[in-house]
Amino acid sequence: MPPPPIDHCVLPVARLDEARRRMSALGFSVAPDAAHPFGTGNACVFFSNGTYLEPLARIDDGRAFEAAAGGNVFVGRDGAFRARYGQEGFSAIVLATDDALSDHRRFVEQGISPGAVLEFSRPFTDAGGKAAQASFRLAFAAPPGWPGSFCFTCQRLNPLPVDRSELVRHANGATAVGKILVTAADPQSAGRFFAAFAGSQSSERADGLLDVYLANGSIQIGAPETLREIYGITVEPSPGPRPVGIVLRCGDQARPRAVLEREGIPFEQTRDHICIAPAPGQGAYLLFEEQP
Question: Inter-axis angle of helices 73-85 and 61-69, to 10 degrees?
Fold first, then answer.
């Protein structure tokens, strides 16, 4: 079977309004706020290839606590991540699937399932104000014994009859999540986990990174010094795998550079990437990679 595609990246934030300001300043079009039925909410950034970023806040602590106590893995792992790393970060890598129930059975057999499948619905509103009901089924995976980041597959149970055309047009020219960067003290072990999660293969590159291949990109895993050398990002060592960066595709790096210079946002220009360090409302390194 071919590997699944990247679906989205979950970015815990302290407040959605702060995330909206930051993402807008970076040149993204941000969708209207949406609330989950279990105490969290998001303000998403969608891309034309179907991938997206999900800034996620806890908007009802009481409901979130009840959901976690009741076995909701999504809320429980979000809380564990915030307890370990604070209110801002990059907590979950999400792949698209057509059969989350089958994924869950596979994760249980592989010993990487942290809990039950989650099925839920929430309202969605497009940029023009048209509303619809979105339904999802999630199957979770996590390295055994690691309370930090986690992963899940996401199955859409009904298509959304809303127009996202305005939401996928960004002043910075971003078109897709292309690569997800992960740091780990033991990249080989982390590579085996992500390959098992994705049902894919991993391979070691000449530059020291491990690649886990996906249908529309890759997960790249490396020690902190390797990620610093290749991408110019600085991260602390992590005993377990921790997502830290997102490489976004764009047609021309002049567009994100112009936005950042206009807004006065610091960035680093390497040979191949524009790199923006995390800030409140933006829990991960964001990198722009030119791909005409």
Answer: 110
Q: What is the pTM of this model?
A: 0.95
By the 8 A CB rule, do 156 and 135 touch?
yes
Q: How far apart are CA 73 and CA 92, in angstroms?
A: 12
Interatomic CA distance for residues 216 and 248, integer angstroms: 12
- In this structure, the number of other CB atoms found within 10 A of the CB of residue 255 comes to 19
pLDDT digits 0-9 by tens, 213-250: 999 999 999 999 999 999 999 998 888 999 999 999 99
For 148, the token pair is 């930090």
Q: Please report the domains of the chain, with CATH numbers, ordered by start residue.
A: 6-156 (3.10.180.10), 174-290 (3.10.180.10)
- E runs forming strands in the chain: 6-12, 34-35, 40-42, 45-46, 52-58, 92-96, 118-125, 131-141, 150-156, 174-183, 202-204, 210-214, 217-222, 242-250, 268-269, 273-276, 285-290
How far apart, in whole angstroms, are the C-alpha atoms of residue 241 and residue 194? 9
Q: What's the distance, CA 123 to chain centroid?
A: 21
CA gap 161, 31 in Å, rounded: 15
Q: Render 189-219 in DSSP notation, one character per residue.
A: HHHHHHHHHHT--EEE-TTS-EEEEETTEEE
User: Tens of pLDDT along 18-42?
Assistant: 999 999 999 999 999 989 999 999 9
pLDDT (0 to 100) of residue 92: 98
pLDDT above 70 coverage of the chain, percent: 97
Q: What is the mean pLDDT of the chain?
A: 94
